[in-house]
Amino acid sequence: MDHLEDAGETGAVRLGFDRRVRLEFHGSKISSDGGLLLFRELDEVLGLHDIARGVLRDTRTGHNRLHSIVGLLRQSVFGRLAGYEDVNDADRLALDPVMQQVVGGRAVDTNAASASQMGRFETKVRATAEKRAALAELSGQWIDRVHASAPPKWITLDIDSSVCPTHGAQEGTAWNGHFGCICYHPLFVFNQFGHLECCALRPGNVHSADGWEEVLKPVIARYADRHLMRFFWADAAFAIPGLYEALEAENCFYAIRMRANRILQGRIAHLLKRPVGRPPNHVRRIYGDFEYQSASWDKPRRVVAKVERHPGELFPRIGFVVTNLPMVPDWIVHFHNQRGTAEQRIKEGKQAINWTRLSCKGLAQNEVRLQLHALAYNLGVFLQGADLPEEVAEWSLTSLQTRLIKIGARVVRHARAIKFQLAEVAASGDRFRLILTAIQRLRAPPVPS
């Protein structure tokens, strides 16, 4: 195998299948994540980390502080967005020219933060209760900044839980019979744009709706004084009286699925009778609408029922939705059926951002990591909301990561300029320019004096 090596001055490696091919390694000059520069421009246009600078106080003492809190936060967020979900890669990323440029400050001329520095930032500097709360509120503040450039006419909130499997004696981890594993059981709130409004890490053995007040009420309060309609939908796990009362008190419209019971089925007994004659070869849907009060409710509420008869099936499929919407029953059922987008968003977060990677020993430290994953997810979704070129507009977050971020880049430094030479494989120069133009359109209009 001597022919594989070429001990020249350049340290190049020669391959045997073609003697003309030589490999040279220039880690400090070449990056595999050139597309992160687009997201750094998005960060700058929206002023996202300017918000973080005013929220995340730096309580470190001493003079050995090479990087600011905002720089460390950028490295955590952008690293996760590029697929580096753990601090184990920080030593290599510290020498990456794109990551150095993204972090800014001293990192541009020296190095970004090392693995030990990032570890202290994520497990010690941010792990106190006060700092975790500030970090958890940052996602909502970033979303408000995005809405400032294009105010929505309504907001629809969707709450759902998920599973984060664990593989060690981590604090708060427990067996969950529904998921069939030892895990954490986080809770997420999304809006109709796919933005992650808020999330919380919970022990693995809690109910799906446990702790909904701490996650949902701050989100509702953020939109309380805005002139827009507010909607909410959820699965049957969140069909609890306290949630109805909280939404009604805030004048928020809701549609929440209910589990069937004997009383509810008795109210629609007339819809369950099998029609006379040969059944058709298409799905038939019948809707019901009535007032219902459970023993635990403070007042009667409207319940919409849907009865579906499918070809070849003996028994109908029945569903119930409790709601305060004034629309007709079929509109309400169609509105509620759209709530499956939360599950898709959670799946995308797992695949692209890998926010199930919560490997710290303490629950507080893992909560910090989940909030950092949430910020990385939102940063990626914010670009999806821009007026992107048609061929890019339908890309998922995973596609944006693999086809737009993972682009080879070579840095060439001059006295007055830093050039990044990007590979035109998945994204051409023209496409980059169109995306940058779309990012500039997201800049919020100046506030009149």
Give a brief description.
By secondary structure, the chain is an alpha+beta fold. The chain has helices at residues 36-46, 48-55, 69-81, 90-93, 97-103, 115-125, 129-149, 212-222, 241-249, 262-267, 329-337, 341-353, 363-384, 390-393, 397-405, 429-440, and strands at residues 13-14, 22-23, 30-31, 154-161, 164-165, 174-176, 181-184, 187-191, 196-200, 229-234, 253-258, 284-292, 301-309, 317-323, 409-413, 418-422.
Architecture blueprint of SSEs:
Elements (H helix, E strand, L loop, with lengths): L12 E2 L7 E2 L6 E2 L4 H11 L1 H8 L13 H13 L8 H4 L3 H7 L11 H11 L3 H21 L4 E8 L2 E2 L8 E3 L4 E4 L2 E5 L4 E5 L11 H11 L6 E6 L6 H9 L3 E6 L3 H6 L16 E9 L8 E9 L7 E7 L5 H9 L3 H13 L9 H22 L5 H4 L3 H9 L3 E5 L4 E5 L6 H12 L9
Parallel strand pairs: 4-10, 10-11
Antiparallel strand pairs: 1-2, 3-15, 4-8, 5-7, 6-7, 8-9, 11-14, 12-13, 13-14, 15-16
Helix pairs in contact: 1-16, 2-3, 2-7, 3-6, 3-13, 7-13
| Low-pLDDT stretches | 1-9
Average pLDDT across residues?
88
Strand percentage: 15-25%
User: Cα distance, first to last residue?
Assistant: 73 Å
Number of strands: 16
Give the helix proportion (percent range). 25-40%
Adjacency order of strands in the biggest sheet: 9-8-4-10-11-14-13-12
Helical element count?
16
Give the C-alpha Rg: 26 Å
Q: Which structural class is indicated by helix and strand composition?
A: alpha+beta
Major beta sheet summary: 8 strands, mixed
Q: Which descriptor suits the 3D outline?
A: elongated
InterPro entries: RNaseH-like_sf, Tnp_DDE_dom, Transpos_IS1380
Protein name: IS1380-like element ISSpo2 family transposase
Pfam families: DDE_Tnp_1_4
